[in-house]
Amino acid sequence: MGEGAPATVLEAVTGRRFLLSSWPWRSLVYLVTSLPMAVAAAVLLALAVLPWQPIATKGPSLDAVLLAAVGVLAATAIPLLATQLAKVERARVRLVDTRPITTSDRAAGLYRYGEATTWREVVHAGLLATVVPVVSSAFLVLFLLVVAFMMMPALIVDGPVAVLFWEIGTAAEAWVCTAVGLPGLAALSYLAAGITGVQAQLARALLSGRNDLRAELVEVSASRARLVDAFEAERRRIERDLHDGAQQRLVSLTIQLGLARVDLPDNKTVAAAHEQAKELMAELREFIRDIHPQVLTDHGLADALDDLADRIPLPVTVEADLTRLPAAVESAAYFVVSEALTNVVKHAQATEVEVQAHQREQMLVVEITDDGCGGADPAAGTGLTGLADRVAVVGGRMLLSSPTGGPTRLRVEIPCRSE
Q1: Rounded distance, CA 367 to CA 356, Å?
Q2: What is the pTM for the complete model shown?
Q3: Number of structural domains in the chain
Q4: Which among 269, 291, 313 is the end of a domain?
């Protein structure tokens, strides 16, 4: 396949050149070869089922018991034989899905009976023996009928031909059949693509191993960790640039305005500019602290929460029994608590807040409870959705209970290990 070429028949079917490509023929070959696969699967299942029929119809007898024993042996062999059918199917699927079906490492001998993959292969064999032949046979009957319509001018040379309830005997009728057959063949090409595409997807779901899925999950987790680290590094860079650049220049400006105020004590403009510069410097310091407080870096989450509580204009009780945690976990938990306390001050009409942070095995659990009016709604634009997203980035979850009238309880759970 070239770059940008469809990898599956379901991708190809949406293209404008589908009918001129090889995909319709590949779908037809896949459907035709489904029939011998179905026969093999049906024989496999019949060996296990049919020997029990004498017992069911005639009652127990020596011959019936012997046949039943054969059925038991055949039934024990079904998983192993289904595995062989699955190998053929994985290769056959490449006709309509060029992506290889990966398999996990398989156990040997009797241990294979304990694998989920083995029993998924048995389920696939059951589908091959029951559903697949019905669908494939119905399609092939339609296909042969359409081909017969297209070849009708040649078929009526030796006499009239009966098709269903219609007898075709004249050249005009034959050419009408051909005219009907051409669009019918195009329609069947799309139908074949749909049938084989779904069948291939089902085969992939049942016959693929799980190692590739686990590898993808590990890669996603690693990517998420790299993303968190990148965000944290960028946050630290912004904090450093503000502290070493803008803040230092603002301090210098404030000092100069202060000196000018001393020299011009009656100048109200200079005095106002000096006061505004001091207020701006205080706001910038608060902003830098909120980007990443130094106490969080130096002393950890417990001390950072105490420092945060001291700056909230409400009575805040903090109970935090914590060791040092990974930086990303501490940062996420801190900013969740910070945003939650800000929301309490702005919206909750609370008189007191309680913050609890504890480690339970390898889980950091943080709860923020207030006695306010309740009714917190993530859809109301209070930042709760953003908090949930921040927690999700580090693999955690956020739970909220906020009935009207209060109290409101926000619970955050983040997987972690002590450092």
Answers
A1: 5
A2: 0.47
A3: 3
A4: 291
